[in-house]
């Protein structure tokens, strides 16, 4: 018998990772799929063996058979559905971002405390093998105090359109969609220090560049070239209470030679590059060493990362593990992201 009966709310593209990972887990039983579009929910249910289909998440949450849910919906609904799920007595795995506003994130945090149920935020890059291995080195003190990090997630062409480019549903563009991944990854590896201030800039210069031909990229199912209300690009300097700092830049579209994902951290005794290739930099016997850990994937493997994330969620729900991406971290990242948007809008540094 399965140890945990789960349901997935939202059957868009990211749900495929959740559904596949639950299907692969020997102790997870997929009970139901919910989506506003019944046909899409039914297709996912048929593919992954769920026996129930819903178009109203409230009806799914009223199902006593469901013990835990993955929330894979539009960003602006994460908070509302998370709170409803917790109040219905379900454990929750909520895709990032936790919320699009700090106030709503704090409401979710309060609901977690009231309900006594678990909420895991979908910071999937924490679950990559390269991150897991590096974290052991950091926790053992081999890099010393991490005082600086730098992250880039730049797409030269890659505005997905659809709900991703509709600020009402997404809450933001590349900063909130892909920037949150690398900001969180750096912050997590830095020891999750409290944010002190942010200075940010966002730009809307290029639009979705739907005119470009001969170069393909992912487009949402509801892509509409005439609709785009999010930023093209953002950058920020984030300062923490312990004196550490993080610089980040992200884009959906940019006049760049190629796409770039780069994550680097620097400590008193050593440093590391997490992306694009995992390298640890250290010093022995007065000589600098670039150490290449021997692991199957030197950069983030999406399928393996999601499987590790789902495995951890199931283990936590069954009482066998502690959360490594709890609701409190979701709140802190929401503060950082929201602060960057406000800083850009007002042209000032935001203090916390």
TrEMBL record:
Organism phylogeny: Bacteria, Bacillati, Bacillota, Bacilli, Bacillales
Name of the protein in its database record: Oxidoreductase
Domain of life, source organism: Bacteria
Molecular function in Gene Ontology: nucleotide binding
Domain Gfo/Idh/MocA-like oxidoreductase N-terminal: 4-123
InterPro entries (alphabetical): Gfo/Idh/MocA-like_OxRdtase_N, Gfo/Idh/MocA_Oxidoreductase, GFO_IDH_MocA-like_dom, NAD(P)-bd_dom_sf
Domain (GFO/IDH/MocA-like oxidoreductase): residue spans on this chain: 134-272
Gene3D superfamilies the UniProt entry points to: Dihydrodipicolinate Reductase, domain 2, NAD(P)-binding Rossmann-like Domain
A Pfam family assignment: GFO_IDH_MocA
UniProt xrefs under SUPFAM superfamilies: Glyceraldehyde-3-phosphate dehydrogenase-like, C-terminal domain (SSF55347), NAD(P)-binding Rossmann-fold domains (SSF51735)
């Amino acid at each position: 018998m399965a140890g945990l009966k789960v349901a997935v709310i939202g059957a868009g593209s990211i749900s495929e990772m959740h559904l596949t990972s639950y299907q692969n887990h020997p102790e997870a039983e997929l009970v139901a799929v919910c989506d506003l579009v019944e046909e899409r929910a039914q297709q996912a249910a048929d593919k992954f063996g769920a026996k129930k289909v819903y178009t109203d998440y409230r009806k799914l949450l009223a199902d006593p058979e469901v013990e835990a849910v993955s929330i894979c919906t539009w960003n602006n609904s994460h908070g509302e559905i998370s709170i409803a799920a917790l109040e219905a007595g379900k454990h929750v795995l909520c895709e990032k971002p936790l919320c699009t506003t700090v106030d709503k994130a704090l409401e979710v945090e309060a609901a977690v405390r009231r309900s006594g149920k678990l909420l895991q935020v979908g910071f999937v890059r924490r679950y990559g093998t390269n991150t897991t291995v590096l974290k052991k080195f950091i926790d053992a003190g081999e890099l010393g105090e991490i005082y600086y990090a730098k992250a880039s997630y730049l797409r030269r062409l890659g505005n997905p359109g659809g709900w991703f480019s509709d600020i009402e549903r997404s809450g933001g563009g590349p900063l909130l969609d892909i920037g949150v991944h690398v900001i969180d990854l750096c912050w997590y590896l830095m020891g999750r220090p409290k944010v002190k201030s942010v200075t940010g800039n966002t730009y809307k210069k290029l639009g979705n560049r739907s005119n470009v031909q001969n170069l393909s990229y992912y487009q949402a199912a509801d892509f509409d070239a005439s609709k785009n209300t999010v930023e093209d690009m953002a950058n920020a300097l984030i300062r923490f209470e312990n004196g550490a700092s993080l610089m980040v830049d992200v884009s959906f579209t940019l006049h760049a030679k190629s796409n770039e994902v780069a994550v680097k951290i620097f400590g008193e005794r050593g440093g590391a590059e997490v992306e694009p290739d995992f390298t640890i930099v250290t010093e022995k016997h007065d000589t600098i060493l670039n150490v290449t850990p021997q692991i199957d994937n030197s950069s983030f493997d999406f399928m393996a990362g999601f499987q590790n994330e789902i495995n951890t969620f199931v283990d936590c729900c069954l009482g066998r593990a502690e959360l490594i991406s709890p609701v409190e971290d979701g709140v802190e990242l929401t503060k950082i992201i929201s602060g960057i948007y406000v800083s850009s809008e007002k042209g000032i540094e935001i203090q916390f």
